Amino acid sequence: MEKKYLTYDLEEASRIDKYLCSEIEEMSRNSIQILIKNSQVLVNGEVVKANYILKTGDNISITIPDPVSDDILPQDIPLDIYYEDSDVIVVNKPSGMVVHPAVGNTKDTLVNALMYHCKDLSAINGVIRAGIVHRIDKDTSGLLVACKNDFAHQSLSEQFFNKTVKRKYYAICYGEINHNLGKIDAPIGRDLTNRQMMAVVDNGKRAVTHFKVLERFNGFTLLELILETGRTHQIRVHMKYIGHPLLGDPIYGPKNVVGDHGQFLHAKTLGFIHPRTKEFLEFESPLPDYFEDKLNELRNNN
């Protein structure tokens, strides 16, 4: 059983189910509404309905039940495996696949596939995030490492915390960036006007993204990006902040979304120190076909 406590500090009114959906990313709005219906969400100590309008200063307590392990079932979903041993597994996640289940949404995720393929996964983050030490967005494709035991998980967690994991992304953004290299150092937190989005805000957590221009097109740029930190939606938020949102991004890009695969963002390179052998391992994955097709289209339009 997990408890969360929030104080509503916004001036504008908001339905409680909509607000909590933006604050608790791993839960859908339907799942939030189920918690409210089951009296597991209290405002100022009182039971409320999903359409309750929050006021500044309202104190919210949420009781999130532990997932029942039987709810998270293995599924025979094909995995694109780049490396595997008794400690870790590196996979190339396709666009459209969610990394781990959430309450009310317990199937067709990477965790379900890993549970079918692997006999054991680390339990540090519980059944619902079995083996998961880091995430990439649903519509972001590319490399991700999962852990088969707690020893490996602890080691990889420390590497991510210490910023020693090597991560390179490829992305297509709107606009032609004139300078070849850049560094975006801007704090990220909840958007002050839309709590379902992240944004650059004064009281956010420090976030640093480095980028290099690989190719320019008519109105677009292909970038290689390196994460120094790992904030939610970091690349997408930072690129919007500098006026070059990612092509296809349904949240941070223009209203007229391009393509059916979400943002053109691919986790191309992943490197880390193996927790047991202490050897540095590095992997690279090719761009998905739809990504290459879009690049060829942009080249032909130049």
Can you tag this structure with a few keywords?
Pseudouridine synthase, Structural Genomics Hypothetical 15.5 Kd Protein In mrcA-pckA Intergenic Region, Chain A, 9-stranded mixed β-sheet, alpha+beta, 302 residues, 3 domains, 29% strand, 4-stranded antiparallel β-sheet
Give the gist of this structure:
By secondary structure, the chain is an alpha+beta fold.
Total domain units: 3
* β-strand number: 17
Question: What's the total helix number?
Answer: 6
CATH fold description of the largest domain: Pseudouridine synthase
The CATH architecture category of the largest domain equals 2-Layer Sandwich
User: Could you give me the name of the CATH homologous superfamily of the largest domain?
Assistant: Pseudouridine synthase
Roughly what is the average pLDDT, rounded to an integer?
90
- Broad CATH class of the largest domain: Alpha Beta
Low-confidence stretches: none
Helix-strand blueprint:
Elements: E1 2-7, E2 14-15, H1 16-23, H2 29-37, E3 41-43, E4 46-47, E5 53-54, E6 59-64, E7 81-84, E8 88-93, H3 110-117, E9 141-147, H4 150-161, E10 166-174, E11 181-185, E12 188-190, E13 198-200, E14 208-216, E15 220-227, H5 234-241, E16 265-273, E17 280-284, H6 289-301
Parallel strand pairs: 9-16
Antiparallel strand pairs: 1-6, 2-5, 3-4, 3-6, 7-8, 8-9, 10-15, 10-16, 11-14, 12-13, 14-15, 16-17
